[in-house]
Write the structure tokens for this entry.
Amino acid sequence: MKYKIPLIIVISAVWAGSILSSCSQKDLAYDRDPVKVMVDFDWINAINAHPEGMTVLFFPADENSKIWRFDISGRNGGEIEILSGIYNVIAFNNDLPGVEFSNTDTFDRFSANTRNLNDSVTSQTGMLYAASLTAQALFNAGDKKALTISMSPDSLATDYHIRLDSISGTQRIKTATAILKGLARGVCLQLKCNSEQTCCVSAPLHIDPLCHTCLETVATGFGNPDITDPKISLEIIVTTSHGKYSKTFDVTDQIMNSKYPKDVYLNIKGLDIPAADTPTNPDGKDDVGISVGVDGWQLIEIIYS
């Protein structure tokens, strides 16, 4: 467990008097003493979550003190020590190398974002779990026992299960990649709302060991962007010994109408991997076969034997 120790602020007693009213009042005075707090995580909203650790941030309500950070291993929580006061709290799992954070000094704008892999593609996020609490009063109890705050992290990312069935010519494949275009680039942890900015998330496709005419993968990213008319597409890119080919499908309806928004299944059927003498459509608008194109994308090499 580690944390940052902010400056100790001492609020002195203030005496105010009024000659006109002939009365006086003494404001309450207190020192910000250390207080023990038990942070408990209730996983009712994500029962299958098993993060390696959780980060908990305490934002002082007065906005003048430094933010406290605690990194707690495992998913069960633990005891911390912090200066007494009123705090807004954010918690999230800290085992996601594909995520970076922005607006980190502001409770209601603290956001998680995908990392850039190159100019066109961002990293997969991994499953992000987060929770927040507002105006938590943390003061020493009379019996000096640790106070308890309970947080219920929820899934803020989505697993996209991509499967291509009835594929002909899989023996020609050297590499295959799925790219989801138009997903939200980030999410606000406190409001649990996705950003308006979009990104492209890629994942390598694998031949199903039980079905050699099927390609599949799982890509993890954020949901649809917070815009009026989102458009999300799935681009399939394959390389063979004689070239690179791509084909794009509109999967907006499949994603928007998914029964499980955090566990989306995308199914494409009937795809022909081009042979050396297969004609291609250079404008990429033909919805049959795979059209040539898309130079500059980063491809993850998977060699098929």
The longest helix spans residues 252-256.
